[in-house]
Amino acid sequence: MTSARPGVVYLVGAGPGDPSLITVRGMELLQKAEVVVHDRLLSDDLLMSVRRDAEIIPAGKSPDHHTLAQDKINAVLIERAKAGRIVVRLKGGDPYVYGRGSEERAACLQAGVHCEVVPGVSSAISAPAAAGVPVTERGVARSFSIITPAVGRGSPLSERDWQAAACADTLSVLMGCGALRSVASQLIEAGRDPLTPAVLVERATMPGERVVFAPLAEIADKADEEQIKNPAVLTVGEVARPRSSGLPMMGKRVVVTRPRTASYELIGGLRLLGAEVIDAPMIDVRTIDSRTDELVRAIKRRPDWLVCTSRHGVRGLFCNLAHAGLDLRALGGVRIAAVGPTTAAEFRARGVEVDLVPKAHRAEGLIQEITASATKDQMRVLFAAGTLARDELRFGLEDAGMMLDEVLVYETVLTGPTDRVRSEIENPSRPIDAVVLASPSGAKSWVEHSLPKHTCFIAIGPTTARAAEELGLTVSAVASSHTDAGMIEELLGLFVQKPEALP
Ligand code: SAH
After folding, report:
1. Which is the closest atom of ligand 1 to the Cα of 17?
2. Which of 159, 273, 391, 453 is deepest in the core (most CB within 10 A)?
3. CA of 174 to the centre of ligand 1 (A)
4. SS3 of 439-493
5. What is the model's pTM?
6. Is 61 considered catalytic here?
7. Ligand 1 contacts CB of residue 486 (under 6 A)
């Protein structure tokens, strides 16, 4: 099938793993793509940016399992582009670093299909960087080289290849995980000092990232001991020594239990302070988009107030409005109350300013301030609610004489940790230092999934703290501002007050 509009293939580097490490151009194209053909190592979060109607084709490659053979991938790219579609071929790291990008581009050009390359952040540099290791450093390393023992199986690296690799001041080895022992011995044979520092970084910039430092001669043993697996990058050279970052949360392992979509800022903030973050979403929040009729009925009763107690409430509200072919104008001069700054920000992102954010970012504060400012003829409240934790607000407003129309626009589902996350949390040789709880349901899910009760818990606010305590968890601190920043502050307080616990 051919089309009047010429199709195009973009070979886009997705970066090493953290979805925010894709380039701006890469993200723009991903959002425009009509077809996305992606590698296995990529984060699902990146694919969430893809248009709903786009075709998503996994072309994942693992060392011993190819979902789509290379010529099939080429054929799919060419066929979709010739049908006039915008095709993004999304690849881990940079498309031209062991990504077979040149082969795919050549195949496209040969078939008369336009093909553009969007570079990405390669794991060869960003994996050591994630461990604080620079690939070049003034006075220490002025040359940097990349090698893989895996490319061109059947044509093993020659002695000359190893000698060249051993000569660079810094060497990153990709796809070398299964052959670490032979990589190390070949390098030593080629003249590299067995005591040269080396660092192995597994799952760099992704949940579950791990870092192992050891001299070159010992790195394979250390990797076996820690059971390091693919994907991992080995970096060898004087630069590869452990460095103290001077960051206050260095060496601390913090578990974040929020739904993933809500935890980027929190995780980013903790990582900036040096913490190792285990991303362990204990709940998932899903929009209920089938409450349109109910919402329209509630709007017809002309509410005086619109109340949202979570950013999910705002999302669910707008989603149901859109389904009815409406926008916020349908609510006329309604006054809007948001429980806290995050909820208010969700309105602001849609061009709407809220009228009220209570000083205490909690249901109680909301009830008090709404009832204080409502006149007798302003008593009707529309509440965009979730399936959990709504009674306090409902009863509080009704006790204060308000008339409440509640529309359920999101639900909270308890989800368990993956096996990998559980083993991170329960690793006996590296105990966790703190668990961040951002909702009563997060606490409930933690306990229901039999995760460790005897550790330090930080709660986002008193409601969460109370729920956690009732479940038998000991809450060490409650964020006074009931925000992510507040929780980070409490953690800092806890870690810094006990400097003897710092590495
Ligand atoms: N084009 C990619 C490399 C593809 S080869 C890039 O530029 O990064 C795949 C290898 O890359 C893996 O075997 C591993 O050695 C490395 N790799 C990719 N992502 C990684 C990550 N997040 N952490 C550690 N190694 C990674």
Report:
1. 22
2. 273
3. 6
4. CHHHHHHHHHCCCCCCCCEEECCHHHHHHHHHCCCCEEEECCCCCHHHHHHHHHH
5. 0.65
6. yes
7. no
